[in-house]
Amino acid sequence: MSILTILEFPDERLRKKAALVKNVDNHIKQLIDDMLETMYHAGGIGLAATQVNVHLQILVIDTSEEKNLPLCLMNPEIISKDGEFEYKEGCLSVPEFFEKIIRPGRIVVKGLDRNGEPVEIEANDLLSTCIQHEIDHLNGKLFVDYLSPLKRQRIKAKLDKIHRLEGR
Ligand code: NI
């Protein structure tokens, strides 16, 4: 397994739309393992393939306290949503920034599991938020897009500065 490089806002590659996974082969399974390792290593609770510059509809999540319940979902599709849940969201692609976002609090999502088998998941609260946040990534959308232009611009300026200092 290996730790992958996570793209950071405002990198334009985070805006690409991910393609459907057609065939869950060993290459894809290796990628899933690497994404999980990368997510755990970075201390995140979710990671989309887009964030590691792979533009396929794959996401990994672990919202458990013990970090021992990895969830992988491919080609996710939300089939119902209702309610509201507010959470102070962060993102491994927008490091150190956290903002309150309101999203539907209960969703049903279908897709493929790690083995390419169809699954349907009902998710509430944090898991619901996390799945929606990761699906946004696959569509080239970031949580900062829900903020005011002014707030988003401030975050961009701060990250631009950090990236400059790091010589990126
Ligand atoms: Ni994110």
Q: Give the radius of gyration.
A: 15 Å
In total, the number of strands is 7
Low-confidence stretches: none
Strand content: 25-35%
- Neighbour order of strands in the largest sheet: 1-2-3-6-7
Helix percent band: 25-40%
List the ions, cofactors and other small molecules found in this model: nickel (II) ion
What characterizes the major β-sheet? 5 strands, antiparallel
The chain-level structural class is alpha+beta
> Whole-number average pLDDT?
97
Given the C-alpha coordinates, what overall shape results?
A: globular
Note the run of SSEs as H and E. HEEEEEEEHH
CA-CA gap between termini: 25 Å
* Secondary structure tally, helices: 3
Break the fold down into its secondary structure elements and pairings.
Layout lengths: L25 H17 L3 E3 L9 E4 L9 E12 L2 E5 L9 E5 L2 E7 L5 E7 H14 L10 H17 L3
Antiparallel strand pairs: 1-2, 2-3, 3-6, 4-5, 6-7
The chain binds nickel (II) ion.
Nickel (II) ion (NI) binds next to helix 2.
List its salient traits:
single chain; 168 residues; alpha+beta; two-stranded antiparallel sheet; 3 helices; 7 strands; 29% helix; globular; binds nickel (II) ion
Please outline what is shown here.
This protein is an alpha+beta fold and 168 residues long. 29% of the residues lie in helices and 26% in strands. Bound molecules: nickel (II) ion (NI).
